[in-house]
Design goal:
By secondary structure, this protein is α/β, with parallel strands linked by helices. The protein contains twelve helices and ten strands. Strands 1, 2, 3, 4, 7, 8, 9 and 10 form an eight-stranded mixed β-sheet that branches. The chain has a two-stranded parallel ribbon with strand order 5-6.
């Protein structure tokens, strides 16, 4: 019986095979159209937070209203609002979502941006939902107010996060420093929940809309309770900083808190820079506001947003000219 030659091991076949591969790759490269990048890139928070679906909802409506797919929007996650501002400054993103207190610090060059300097080119498109600064402590410790956190093990929030910015401002208002706590940590939202449940921390911090699933889980599984943030020091924060607002977490929102819990809140703000064209800024605002009913249904935290909430909660002096033109067309601003 004749044996079949092992052509697959011969040099001529390898040369033939390689030539065909190069030919095919060349054909694919020549025949496949180049895919251009998105026209707008929106920086959001982590996938587990609310800023991620907020950015996704804005992109969804922008893409929905773009005829024949001629313009596209995409989102990218981030580690927090400080990174968002840095990404806007470097041009890695076109639009970002940050809390109102971080925006004010970035424009003024204060807080986390002291070493970076003021970023005067930031502009606002519109505002989103409100988030409440929330401290959850182990229930058996019976911590009722922020002043009672002294000599406790607390989480400050991860570097660059909204929680960290709020915690540092509240500490300053109360006249406390890290030395006043038994331990301070810089954990992420997921890590701090695990640490509280493991009795490695006495109190953890969130900046979220309520009800919130992470807090619900900590309250149910780990006997967490919300800490009230009220009193003269908190009133002074509200008096000096217009970027904060009163916030109340209604009693019964969580099993551990039958009574209302008072705190302060920030707004999610959709920001960009002077580099974004007036046309794109106009269309981003228009595509959201013209589809506001759809937008409200895309996430529970957006369900109660009104036009007034989304325009009046912004600093008019920072409003992007393109967004301002759309609001003027609708006679919502003058």
């Amino acid at each position: 019986m004749r044996s079949i030659p092992d052509v697959y091991g011969t040099a001529w076949f390898r040369r033939f095979n390689t030539g065909c591969l190069i030919f095919l790759v060349g054909c694919v490269c020549a025949c496949t159209p180049l895919v251009r990048g998105p026209d707008v890139v929106i920086g959001t928070g982590s996938p587990g937070g609310t800023y991620y679906p907020l950015g996704g909802s804005i992109c969804r409506l922008f893409n929905l209203e773009t005829e024949n797919g001629t313009r596209r929007c995409a989102i990218v996650p981030s580690s927090g609002p400080v990174e968002i501002i840095d990404s806007l400054r470097s041009g890695r993103i076109d639009v970002g979502i940050v809390p109102s207190d971080v925006l004010v610090d970035a424009v003024a060059g204060t807080g986390a941006f002291t070493s970076r300097g003021a970023y005067r080119e930031l502009r606002v498109l519109f505002a989103g939902h409100a988030d409440a600064f929330t401290i959850v402590a182990r229930r058996e410790l019976r911590i009722h107010g922020a002043a009672e956190l002294r000599d406790r093990r607390i989480n400050m929030g991860s570097p660059g996060s909204g929680e960290r910015v709020g915690m540092e401002r509240i500490m300053a208002a109360l006249g406390v420093t890290r030395a006043d706590f038994l331990e301070t940590h810089e954990l992420s939202l997921a890590e701090q929940s695990r640490a509280l449940c493991a009795n490695e921390l006495d109190a953890i911090v969130y900046e979220v809309a309520h009800p919130n699933g992470l807090i619900q889980d900590v309250v149910r599984r780990c006997r967490g309770g919300l800490v009230d943030l009220s009193g003269p020091a908190i009133d002074e924060i509200l008096r000096q900083h217009a970027e904060y607002e009163h916030a109340t977490i209604p009693g019964g929102t969580y099993l551990s808190n039958p009574e209302d819990v008072h705190t302060i809140g920030v707004r999610a703000v959709i920001v960009t820079t002077t580099k974004l064209s007036d046309v794109l800024a106009h269309d981003l605002a228009k595509d959201v506001f013209e589809n506001l009913e759809i937008f409200r249904r895309l996430h529970p935290d957006f369900s109660l947003l009104s036009i007034a909430d989304m325009i009046d909660a912004t600093d008019r002096s920072l409003l992007h000219p393109g967004a301002a033109r759309y609001f003027q067309e609708r006679v919502w601003v003058r």
